[in-house]
Design a protein that fits this description.
single chain; 164 residues; mainly alpha; Four Helix Bundle (Hemerythrin (Met), subunit A); 5 helices; 0% strand
Length: 164
C-alpha cells in the first residue's frame, strides 16, 4: 500500500476539531477552578453570596462550550458524524486553520476571564451591592471568545462550500 498525502485531509480536519475542543475545555477547566477557589473563600465568610459568586465562577466555562460547539460543527461538516469523510489535504488544512481561532482564543480568554472573575469575586465580597458592575469586567473578556467562535463557524462553513 502506497502512502498518499491526499488521504491526510481528514486527519488535519480532525486535529482542528480536537484542538478547539481540548484547548477551550482545558482553559475553561483551569479558569473555573481558579474562580471556584476564590468563590469558596467568599462563601466561607458570607454564605448568602453563593449565587452571585457562582455566576462569576461559571463565566470562564463558556469557552469550553464554544470549543465543543466548534468540534461538533467540524465533525458534522467533514462527514465524521454521517456522510462522506473524503477530505482533500488542502481542505483538511483549511478546516484545521478554521478551528484555530476558537482553539487559541478560547484557551487564552478562559484564563484571562478567570482573572477578571476572581477580581470581581473580590469586589462582591467587599461590596455585594456592586454585583452588576462586577459582572461587566469578565463579560468584556467574553466578547473576544464570541468573536473567535463566530469567525471559526464562518470559516468552517466557508471551507465546506469550497470545491477542492
Amino acid at each position: 500500500m502506497k502512502f498518499d498525502w491526499n488521504t491526510m485531509g481528514i486527519v488535519f480536519a480532525l486535529l482542528g476539531a480536537i484542538l478547539a475542543t481540548f484547548m477551550g475545555g482545558i482553559g475553561s477547566a483551569i479558569g473555573v477552578s481558579m474562580t471556584g477557589r476564590a468563590a469558596a473563600g467568599v462563601v466561607t465568610e458570607d454564605p448568602s453570596q453563593f449565587g452571585k459568586v457562582l455566576i462569576l465562577q461559571l463565566l470562564p466555562g463558556t469557552q469550553g462550550i464554544y470549543g465543543l460547539l466548534i468540534g461538533f460543527v467540524t465533525l458534522t461538516q467533514i462527514g465524521v458524524m454521517g456522510g462522506s469523510s473524503d477530505i482533500s489535504l488542502i481542505k483538511g488544512l483549511l478546516y484545521l486553520a478554521s478551528c484555530l481561532p476558537m482553539a487559541i482564543v478560547g484557551w487564552v480568554s478562559a484564563l484571562q476571564q478567570a482573572k477578571a472573575s476572581v477580581a470581581s469575586i473580590a469586589l462582591v465580597a467587599k461590596k455585594p451591592d456592586q454585583f452588576g458592575k462586577a459582572m461587566i469586567f469578565p463579560a468584556m473578556v467574553e466578547t473576544y471568545a464570541v468573536f473567535a467562535l463566530l469567525i471559526s463557524i464562518l470559516a468552517i462553513f466557508g471551507v465546506s462550500s469550497l470545491a477542492l
